[in-house]
Amino acid sequence: MPAPIEFWFEFGSNYSYLALMRIEEEARRAQVPLHWKPFLLGPILRELGWQSSPFVDQKEKGDYVWRDMARRAARYGLPFRRPSDFPRRAVLPMRVALLGSAQPWMGEFCRRVMLRNWAQDAAIDNDDCVLAALAGLVADPSAILFQARQEPARDALRAQTAEARRLGIFGAPTFMVAGEMFWGDDRLEDALDHARTLG
Amino acid sequence: MPAPIEFWFEFGSNYSYLALMRIEEEARRAQVPLHWKPFLLGPILRELGWQSSPFVDQKEKGDYVWRDMARRAARYGLPFRRPSDFPRRAVLPMRVALLGSAQPWMGEFCRRVMLRNWAQDAAIDNDDCVLAALAGLVADPSAILFQARQEPARDALRAQTAEARRLGIFGAPTFMVAGEMFWGDDRLEDALDHARTLG
Predict the structure, then answer these.
(1) CATH code of domain B5-197
(2) Which residues of A touch B63 (CB under 8 A)?
(3) Chain A residues touching residue B58 (CB < 8 angstroms)
(4) Three-class DSSP category at A36
(5) Which of A7, A125, B67, B158 has its CA 20 to 30 A from that of B3?
(6) Would you call A121 an interface residue with chain B, using a CB distance cutoff of 8 Å?
(7) pLDDT by residue (tens digit) across B72-108?
(8) What is this model's ipTM?
(9) What sequence ranges are listed for the domain DSBA-like thioredoxin (chains A, B) (predicted)?
(10) A126: contact with B, CB 8 A cutoff
């Protein structure tokens, strides 16, 4: 049995989009158990001294990143439109994702939120987004939305973000395999390979 | 005929090492003409506001990068030892590389300098390194060393670095294919694919 892969991601992170759209299928193919780990990237970046995303703070890299994103999305066969708002706030759907981390609807819910941000250029930090992304996946979307607005769900996301910081996570997506860190969508294959070698 | 790939690199850059050791063979296999573009990364990073390498200035990312380097080198079958001095000064061998950019000895010369830095943990910004790396490749290594110490060679490297800045290059390695930028060792395959599609 391979080691599990932990997938640390955030809906506002563009390279998290590329990894999230692929990971459930890739992990299944590699027979590697997948553990979803939504966390807030913003507070971590601010602690590391960034004002916003490094892709905003560093103009040259930022210009480049959108070309790279378009090419990589095309390579994966994923739709992509550069968002008019970046990095987009994602706190509410992130709380829902944390509630859903071990649920069968997790993957599809997350892909729908991501598509809204990265293909439809629509805001995601609102009730409409969450309800639409849960529609058909759970019996009562509004019950989950209600739960996501309560203090325990807020605390849980804060705690998960603190855990990311403790692990030394400095960007997203990050994959953790048996304590080994892999950073960036382009390291997903390395991380899965590593999980297999531990099997 | 595919478009050429320009390979912008610096001996002091760790991900340039991974790309440089592979690129001649990979470009040949892809039948993509290779143009060597040595430039100094330090002045560019300073202009962008960094004190040293981003892998030194950002502790968390720096810690990660050496793990990633070891794993990536192993994946490529390349030797790797984390240098005791990073980023290592490389001005003299960079000037030689610029002199050799269109010479048949370029690839082997560069690989030898890189191995000295990244596998043997030895200084490279000195006469010994240059003479050893040229040995057997050219009739008179000391003549090239002499030439590298003259003002035209210094000016040429400054001009090449200014050209990198003009192109918007913010890191190394960077591949340019028909004006399209690809940044990082892990985009070499994308860059070669792009060069082929233009063929």
Answers:
(1) 3.40.30.10
(2) 168
(3) 48, 170
(4) strand
(5) B158
(6) no
(7) 999 999 999 999 999 999 999 999 999 999 999 999 9
(8) 0.89
(9) 5-191
(10) no
**SS3 letters across chain B:** CCCCEEEEECCCCHHHHHHHHHHHHHHHHHCCCEEEEECCHHHHHHHCCCCCCHHHHCHHHHHHHHHHHHHHHHHHCCCCCCCCCCCCCCHHHHHHHHHCCCCCCHHHHHHHHHHHHHCCCCCCCCHHHHHHHHCCCCCCHHHHHHHHCCHHHHHHHHHHHHHHHHCCCCCCCEEEECCEEEECHHHHHHHHHHHHHCC
Q: Do B182 and A58 touch (CB under 8 A)?
A: no
- pLDDT class of B136 with cuts at 50, 70, 90: very high
The low-confidence residues of chain A, meaning pLDDT below 50, are: none
Closest to A143 in 3D by CA, of A175, A182, A170, A103: A103
Per-residue pLDDT band at B33 (split at 50, 70, 90): very high
Smallest Cβ–Cβ distance between A60 and the set B48, B64, B190 belongs to: B48
Report which of B50, B45, B49 is spatially closest to residue B161, judged by C-alpha positions: B45
Tell me the nearest-neighbour CA distance from A90 into chain B, angstroms.
Answer: 24
User: Two tokens at A148?
Assistant: 């996501």
pLDDT digits (tens, 9 = 90+) for B34-76: 999 999 999 999 998 888 888 888 888 989 999 999 999 999 9
Extract the tokens encoding B81. 């030892």
